[in-house]
Write a structure and sequence with these properties.
- One of its GO terms (molecular function) is rRNA (uridine-C5-)-methyltransferase activity.
- It comes from Candidatus Borkfalkia faecigallinarum.
- Its EC number is 2.1.1.190.
- By secondary structure, this protein is an alpha+beta fold.
- It is 24% helix and 31% strand.
- Strands 9-8-7-10-11-12-13 form a seven-stranded mixed beta sheet, covered by helices on one side.
- Helix 2 runs antiparallel to helix 3.
Length: 477
């Protein structure tokens, strides 16, 4: 509600009550027939706004003044909050963040797929700050052509300069300072997206139990005076490797195809759940180790409860979860498209005594899964699917439906694509000439030849941000 029903046009100021929060953590405010989305507000607050954009009864507004703060509002720890686009909900008390993430999953299931489900409270992260084991930070130029290292502003490629980020451990601050000093002292220019000039594009660092995989992503074939960069890193880090990745294209992807090892070891070993595994610079590992433990423990329990004799782990990354499943169930197959990650998964077999139990396939899931389902007894299998943020390929979903595999555990960091994929597997969405549409014949208890949802569990893998990890168990009807 608001203090007037007059519709606000662009740049007009108005006062309104934040009624709820949307899926991106933004406040929802109605003014007349227009619904406004306003970031960095909290449900229940009376706020003074400026309308930034209005079209087709949907608007975007900026909060100018919090007139009546909500009890859930807290002071953000980061001085760049609202400027940097990395965190969206750092101004909300942590308990309320968990409720918001549960609601985000529940709303996505209903609005996108027409699935009604009472989603429980998100599993908390034991660390709400300094939890990330990976730094991925862009390098560019400001409007004056000066080098800048920082994170993108919300919905843009404008880089906000950052020296320290509260959701990263202290080592990230050292990395940023080292690269800034290196670029200045060695005359290294940052890559300019507008002109295509310059060299250094991204800095990517993975912490593997105190051993660091540092990657400099460059637009050209050379990393100038890399020995100088190694010397600077050596002053702060006891064990590290320096990689160069060459990305000479214009796409938004962080990495190009070519990696070169300039210093140190190519991969570093770690252990979790009694499993020894290895990680390289382009190997997928969950960024929040504590929540990853909770997620993988629950996934293994679902596989054991299914009574299956074999488990297939699609999008298996470094193979840690696949190895856990192989040890507990007896036989597991991992499918991973990144050769480096698949090689890391292969290196798990011998030290963990998983010969004859763990099998890794390097290739696209949409190509390899149908073939694998022809070789194993699908009726004695349990499938784990943990895709990237874009969700599961349609061919993969078709292969799952055609296989008749009894149970599927889906893991997703994106509620929107999760809801879409669940809609296809349960039959609540059907393909039409206009695209996916809600199925009027959908039966929540399960449709013949489709899957029914048995459990939904959100986990807070990414505190202070809008993102949420979700584990869903599906059962064939």
């Amino acid at each position: 509600m608001s203090d007037t029903t007059e519709v606000a046009g662009k740049n007009q100021e108005f006062t309104g009550l934040v009624e709820a929060l949307g899926s991106n953590g933004e406040g929802i405010v109605h003014r007349g027939d227009t619904v406004f989305f306003a970031p960095y507000t909290v449900a229940g607050e009376k706020v003074k706004f400026r309308a930034l954009k209005v079209k087709n009864r949907v608007g975007y507004a900026k909060a100018l003044e919090i007139l009546t703060p909500a009890d859930e509002r807290v002071r953000a720890r980061c001085p760049l909050f609202t400027r940097c686009g990395g965190c969206q909900i750092q101004h909300i008390r942590y308990g309320a963040q968990l409720k918001l993430k549960s609601k985000t999953v529940q709303d996505a299931l209903y609005k996108i797929a027409g699935i009604e489900w009472d989603v429980p409270l998100a599993v908390k992260s034991d660390n709400q700050f300094e939890y990330r084991n990976k730094l991925q930070i862009p390098v560019g130029v400001d409007k004056n052509g000066r080098n800048v290292i920082g994170f993108y502003a919300e919905r843009s490629h404008r880089i906000v300069p950052v020296s320290r980020c509260p959701i990263h451990p202290r080592w990230a601050e050292d990395v940023i300072a080292i690269f800034a000093g290196y670029m200045t002292s060695c005359g290294v220019r940052a890559y300019d997206e507008r002109t295509g000039q310059g060299n250094l594009r991204h800095i990517v660092v993975r912490d593997v139990d105190g051993k660091f995989l540092v990657t400099a992503v460059t637009a050209t074939d050379t990393l100038p005076q890399s020995d100088r960069l190694v010397a600077l890193l050596n002053k702060k880090f006891k064990t590290f490797s320096l990689w160069q990745n060459i990305h000479d294209g214009t796409g938004n992807g962080v990495f190009g195809k070519t990696f070169r090892l300039l210093h140190g070891r190519g991969r570093y070993a770690s252990h979790e759940f009694g499993i020894h595994f290895e990680v390289g610079p382009n190997t997928f590992v969950q960024v929040n180790r504590g929540v990853c433990r909770k997620l993988y423990e629950r996934t293994v329990r679902l596989a054991l409860d299914s009574g299956a004799g074999v488990v297939i782990d699609a999008y298996s990354g470094c193979g840690l979860l696949t190895a856990m499943l192989a040890r507990q169930v007896g036989r597991a197959y991992g499918i991973e498209v990144v050769p480096e990650a698949s090689a890391c998964a292969d290196s798990l077999i011998e030290p963990n005594r998983l010969e004859g139990k763990l099998f890794n396939i390097c290739g696209k899931v949409e190509e390899e899964l149908p073939a694998l389902l022809q070789r194993v007894d699908a009726q004695d299998a349990f499938l784990v699917v943990d895709p990237p943020r874009k969700g599961v390929d349609r061919a993969t979903l078709g292969a799952i439906l055609a296989s008749g595999i009894p149970q599927v555990a889906m893991i997703s960091c994106n509620p929107s694509t999760l809801a879409r994929d669940l809609g296809i597997l349960t039959g609540s969405l059907v393909e039409t000439a206009e695209g996916l549409k809600k199925n009027r014949a959908y039966v929540p208890g399960g449709m013949p030849g489709r899957y029914a949802i048995r459990s939904v569990l959100p986990l807070d893998m990414f505190p202070q941000t809008k993102w949420v990890e979700t584990l869903v168990l599906l059962e064939r009807k």
